[in-house]
Amino acid sequence: MSNITMNINSDFETSKISFDDFREIILKDYRLAVESRIASLSGRKEVLTGKAKFGVFGDGKEIAQIALAKVFQPGDWRSGYYRDQTFAFALGISSIYHFFSQLYANPDLEADISSGGRQMNCHFSTQLLDKEGNWLNQTEQKNSASDISTTGGQMARVMGLGLASKLYKENRNLDYLTYFSRQGREVVFCTIGNASTSEGVFWETLNAAAVKQIPVVISVWDDGYGISVPNEVQTAKADISEVLKGFQRENDSNGIEIFKVRGWDYPALCEVYEQAARYAREEHVPCVVHVTELTQPQGHSTSGSHERYKSAERLEWEDAFDCNLKMRDWLLQSGIAQEEELKDLEKEAKEFVRQEQRRAWADYHKTLQVDLDEAIALLSDIENPITEVPLKTLQSLAEPSLKEVYANVRRAIRDLRGIYSSEKDVLMAWYTQKQEQNFGRYNDKLFSETLDSPLKKDGISAHYEEDVSIVDGREVLNACFDANFRRDERIVAFGEDVGKIGDVNQGFAGLQEQFGELRIFDTGIRESAIIGKGIGLALRGLRPIAEIQYLDYLIYAMPVLSDDLACLSYRTKGTQKAPVIIRTRGHRLEGIWHSGSPMTVLLGGLRGLHICVPRNMTQAAGMYNTLLRSDEPALVIECLNGYRLKEKMPANVGDFMVPIGIAEQIREGRDITVVSYGATLRVVQEAAIELEKLGISLEIIDAQCLQPFDRTEICRQSLEKTNKLLVVDEDMPGGAAAFIMQEILEKQNGYYLLDGQPRTLSAKPNRPPYGSDGDYFTKPSVDDVVELAYEMMSEYNESVFPRLF
């Protein structure tokens, strides 16, 4: 482990640069540090005066971040967190103006270039897409994955971002993708707080990075605390670099390089980062830079005060070892600058920050003022005393907000019910138009919505030859993947047991031998890192299939899936996308730990992903064909008990496409519409045969996708005939079946077509015990479907269908 305490940065050798140029660079760095500190102090004031909602800032870490930015090159990537404002300023991916615009939550993407007002301050992002959703040239800009607040969450995607460089370096067939890499020389720079190194995702990712030898430099900003919890409680030996010594690379092993440097030592920081970046860029060796003796002058956030938990001695030390103050002292002691010169610089910096803060506030205010002025004018035109209170409220607002504007407009509309006038009609028309605008401000871009959206891909039917082969379902999948890997060099697949044995159910059998270990490979048991790997690869133009061995194990990766992938398009207002396909298998598993259908969790946590639930492997193959030609992330859940069931092999196995979000009627009937998906669909089909013997005809709808659900409203069309609805699945009660019910009854207005109570049949609330008997008594069986369907018909006409029990 290197413990760098040098006082001279090799970048500044006099043989390379004149003293005047050297001095100009140093003073520019110091000025940026001062500006960033003033922005932090001003930001806190804006929150405490009520002009902003909440604030987290990067004060105390300015000098280290400026040194880090010096080795960052166009094409490189940042995966950081909410303490990186100085880093962002130094890279040029944000500015003081953008910083305050985000603090005020300006919904204009030109003001808050990172998120259009959707993320709290200090959550940075660079635009990777043009307005049509096409990739920009990543090699010509400095790139930043969109930040998330989840502590340690920025670690997972580091795997994919760095692995992309490795693949671009080693796979010459990717050389045509010039927008994404210069043959793999890009480095990923990850930042994380010392306390967050206690998170499991940190260790998962670091271990995987060491195994794969990806080009990443991980900076640990160590200010001694995690909110109020000191290092002694957070970390063994109270020192993360000490704990990591076992990862140290030795004798050409696949470990990491570790550096330790003080956060106020500007020359040493520059030297360390130059050395770490060289290891990562030239040798693809992952590095950890442990930056110690940092401070956090304003505490964790605007929600509290660090004086509550830091001792007087600690606070005194922080004052003395403030990184900006230490750099200032160094400038004076080394003769690089004089006192008056620094005072002038600091005064100019303060005025500049104040000027940019005012400009950001004025622009935000202008955005609000347009809507406020229009609302006041429209309410003033209505000559009715009813509008007096909302009108005067709007006229008296000292600090307007869109919430206040529209709350008062909506109040006026309610109060004017039953009153008709042309002026009211104008107000209503304006409000309707503004609803669309506000949807764009606060709700759009959950998905990419580009021309490559899977929802814009037409279906292509599977074609079968006369002498069609009847094969195991797994063979259909295998042929599908084979064809797609031949078609598109960008596709890679990975997961536990995916490479050598071709996955536990043989969907990739033999494909690693054909396409090589760079494209199809095994991973360790680390679900968060697997999903993060997919996110990073997709951000860099590749088409990953990230396999999670069983559906239950997806829960281990939920923070990465939910907090990062699912909301990526939304939180960047459509300026970033990561079209990852997550492949897994589930349904009809037996046993407490393999219950197989946590669909409630997925539907609640993964809005922003398409959730596909194919009934067999042919439908799954058609969905993969569609998704691999599209640009949005998706989860495909294959039926575990379907791999060895016999299916026809399509002649166009790599080209036919199943449209996403389109339900399918797979059995025509007259009495009850039954909606199901996945493994329970076969249960319903068996039950339909039994019910025919009892004089009951089921019409069966395969949902095929849960998100989106039944875009062509086949369920409603079926209800127009049967007027009865039963939803069957094996999720917990109140889960996916309730979601489907809400979609049909509320969104499709199916409620008005019913002539009986709609019913759901799901698994029991307990997890299923092990064995087939346990499965029978805890998940929907053929008998359960038969009896519930019969009960529904008995309630409708008991004379024809007398009660069974």
UniProtKB/TrEMBL annotation:
Keywords, in A-Z order: Oxidoreductase, Thiamine pyrophosphate
Enzyme class: oxidoreductase
Keyword Oxidoreductase among record annotations: yes
Obligatory cofactor(s): thiamine diphosphate
Chain ranges of the Transketolase-like pyrimidine-binding domain: 471-645
UniProt EC number: 1.2.4.4
SUPFAM superfamilies recorded: Thiamin diphosphate-binding fold (THDP-binding), TK C-terminal domain-like
CDD domains xref list: TPP_E1_PDC_ADC_BCADC
InterPro entries, alphabetized: DH_E1, THDP-binding, Transketo_C/PFOR_II, Transketolase-like_Pyr-bd, Transketolase_C
Keyword Magnesium applies: no
Task of the protein: E1 component of the 2-oxoglutarate dehydrogenase (OGDH) complex which catalyzes the decarboxylation of 2-oxoglutarate, the first step in the conversion of 2-oxoglutarate to succinyl-CoA and CO(2).
Protein known as: 3-methyl-2-oxobutanoate dehydrogenase (2-methylpropanoyl-transferring)
